Fold this protein.
Amino acid sequence: MSDTKPRVEFWFDVTCPWCWMTSRWATEVASVRGFDIEWHPFSLKILNEGRDTGSHAVHHERGLRAMRVIEQARAEHGPGVVAALYTAIGTRIHPGGRDDIDAIIAEALAEVGLPATIAEAADSEAPDGVLRANTAHAMEIAGPDVGIPVISIDGVAFFGPVVTPAPTGETALRLWDGIYAAASVPGFYELKRGRTVGPQF
């Protein structure tokens, strides 16, 4: 591997459990390997506009409320707050098993040390322009017909990796090395097998 630090970008929606586990893996690898991750708020509700998403619709709506708040926090306080806010919200949703999104948002803002008034963005369409642009861009660089997580390494974007539970330690680093190697091959597009288990937090 090169000693040069890669540019890594990650598109996420807080309600996606697969995205959550991939984000935990990527966060661990980044801390060990010494690179930063640029976190980009994304909306599954925006992605699926005009589609019947069945039982997922309520989750997508909760996600949009949370993603509006995260985007507003980024706009007001800079990109450095995004990862911490994602972690605070995602921990409550996924391992925490909660769905009271407005209470979660309020608690997460307090935990990260951000003004409580940012929660008002959940009911505002003002952040939607950036969320829509982020969502469209992720699909443009990784799609078509993919979802999240989307991760980009030095400008090469993939859907995934989809993995459960989130790898840690040496396993996490081995997976990263494989993804990094795949990103270095211009013609590499897809490697997939059917899932046999659900999210394991």
Notes: Strands lie at 8-12, 37-41, 150-153, 156-159. Helices lie at 17-33, 44-47, 56-77, 82-93, 101-112, 128-142, 169-183. DSSP finds seven helices and four strands in the chain. The CA atoms of residues 25 and 168 lie 7 Å apart.
